[in-house]
Amino acid sequence: MPVSALPSILDLTKQLVRAAVGSGATVIDATVGNGHDTLFLAELVGPSGRVFGFDVQESALMHARERLATAGVAERVTLFHAGHHTLLHCLPAACIGTVRAAMFNLGYLPGSDKQVVTVPETTIAALDAVLGVLAPGGIVTVHVYTGHAGGMEEALRVQQWCDALDWAAFRAIRYGWCNKERNSEALVVVERLQGSTVHERKQETVDA
Known about the structure:
This protein is α/β, with parallel strands linked by helices. 31% of the residues lie in helices and 24% in strands. The chain has a seven-stranded mixed β-sheet with strand order 3-2-1-4-5-7-6, sandwiched between helices. The N and C termini lie far apart (46 Å).
């Protein structure tokens, strides 16, 4: 099987998050799933850090809790059985302006009900909310998939959201495979600039 020396999107995501997050940091896993990214973040922030995770599937959260407990890091993580668009209602007020990284994996959870997918309305609302808690120098990573119903529309909405970000406060970049014909995917990364002031954005209204 051919082997590429280029980093996978997952590997590149982790490289960027490691560069932004240190011991003691506060971070968000906006799409917990079975907890792989949650565990990665929990190990990264260490015993004095905090991870806040969100997912709408209780079965996924159960698997995530088991994974975290097995690794001995469960006490560093607070999981919410809620959509990521509700994060401002769930996070402690002390998190505002302190979050070093927020990770999003869009689409559906592999091995689960493929009808349960992220949708543009709640994804954009969650991204808007994250901007309000992101620390200067903090980043948001969004792994975008298009190989499911509604995936292309969601990818377009995320791109439009990035295009509208204030250049004086943020940098947004996109990494993707140019020649992947089926189920294309991309990584979108947003950085809040040091010294920037984040102005409130009008969030989309969605059902909680």
